[in-house]
Write a structure and sequence with these properties.
Length: 109
Amino acid sequence: MNAQEKKIYALAGEKDEVIVLQPRKDQSFAKLVLSDFVNMPFTSKAALRARVRKNAYFLIRNDEKAVLYSVDDNLYYDSYDVTEEVKASEDPYSFVFMGFKFKYHEILG
């Protein structure tokens, strides 16, 4: 278990499921409405791309909520409530958020 996974386990609750995610650019990004950009914490597409390549991504979910975590090498993290995106996804093993498709890579527990 690497340091980022240990950090995520420290954040997860007893009944939460932890999933390692694999982000990929989603073609539907161009179709996002302006309101989706209000919640976007990135300043540019280049900054977003650089961040996606560098950070590790995890989904912590339970019966009520799904939270996306972005963890960098220094173990700093950002979290985003993606409950609605996960529920709206037609694929039970992926979801789209902020122009990226996050595919479930490995379920840790």
